[in-house]
Amino acid sequence: MRTVVESDIRFIRLWFTDVSGQLKAVAIDPGELEAAFSEGLGFDGSAVQGLTRVYESDMLLRPDPTTFALLPNQGEKVARMFCDLLTPEGKPALSDPRGVLERTLRRAEEIGFSVQIHTEVEFYMLKQTSDPLAIEPVDNAGYFDYVARGGSNDFRRRAVQALEDMGISVEFSHHEAGPGQNEIDLRAADALTAADNIQSLHTVVQEIALSENQMATFMPKPFIDYPGSGMHTHISLLEGGSNAFYDPAGQHRMSRTARAFIAGLLRHAREISAVVNQHVNSYKRLWGGGEAPCYICWGHNNRSALVRIPLYKPGKGQDARVEYRAIDSAANPYLAFAVLIAAGLAGVQGRYDLMEEAQDDVWQLSDSERAVLGIEDLPHSLKDAIDTMARSELVAATLGEEAFDYVLRDKVSEWNAYRAQVTPWELRKSIRPL
């Protein structure tokens, strides 16, 4: 509050996320901040997707002061804070996605772990056109290409600077494999901060793109012939200040905890798919080529595997981590991180055995070869993922009844709407001139 006064901040935006992952905001005058901290800010929760039912609509926003940051490029001085959602009685709202992740992290703490996450966020930059469906990349560059005097270089510089100004550390950024495709990698942070940072990155990237007369999309697979946009997620468990995944005597220097955590991710991969790949379009990325992982296996530095053990420098045991490669950039980060952590911890607590490492390029194996190795498929469609999630005790317990029921209803509605579409491909395939 002292910073608000001393910095002459004119508006404060309170941010929160609905169950589908959409960022929401309300702006308040600095004079209302003290009351927001002490009492919360009331709003109609029934008007926001999945938060509450009409007959119990009142909810409160309470800002988290640890998330205070100035927003860049606003003209006037504007700050933001993420909020927790509360009931009128001041209790945590069970449908709050941020609260779902907080509950999962408390369960991790109860068994002795804290969780660190860093992400590789991919997205496409598109030209502004009069027809929003006629999408076109801003360049024709490829992986790690330097685009001379291109807008994407200046764009990434501005985006990274804006994130750094907000206190969000960026490891590096570069052009990805697809034309107009970019990647920004965020440094490791505690899991809750990492999810907040993803929401901030989405906002910063989209606003800077608009300021340069471009559009940014985090859609998993916007182009048929180009790679999809993933969000490879690196997870570490810390135990008493040490990395619980590191064992210098273990295979690939992995501890038993790391092996069991990976086993949990693999065993529950199909169940959590509708959360980490929440859209119809997500499965076009997974099964559309472009090195997206679609088979349930793990490997050391094997980029065809669903879970990868990345290389790290000798003497850097604190960097030990597992990389989950199926999650895409359109996922709700709070719910996605929650189910990933819950699946891994189920493996740790249940002492799951880890399947044999995939040594080969699993994309090149035949169906029978994968079957012999015990390698299953991820869901082939959102419908397949929904049906699997509906039977999952782990996902239901992690999300809670309210959020779980809403996700199921919302995804069934999306699938039914998609099935009703008549696509240009169908028209081209079926209509022949006489």
From TrEMBL:
Broad EC category: ligase
PROSITE patterns xrefs: GLNA_ATP, GS_BETA_GRASP, GS_CATALYTIC
InterPro entries noted in UniProt: Gln_synt_N, Gln_synt_N_sf, Gln_synth/guanido_kin_cat_dom, Gln_synth_cat_dom, Gln_synth_gly_rich_site
Lineage top rank: taxon: Bacteria
Transmembrane parts of this sequence: none
Keyword ATP-binding: yes
Record's keyword annotation contains Chaperone: no
GO molecular function, one term: ligase activity
GS beta-grasp domain location: 7-90
Family matches, as SMART domains: Gln-synt_C
Enzyme Commission identifier(s): 6.3.1.-
UniProtKB keywords: ATP-binding, Ligase, Magnesium, Metal-binding, Nucleotide-binding
Cofactor dependency: Mg(2+)
Residues in GS catalytic domain copies: 97-434
Recorded family membership: Belongs to the glutamine synthetase family.
Entry protein name: Glutamine synthetase family protein
Record organism: Gleimia hominis
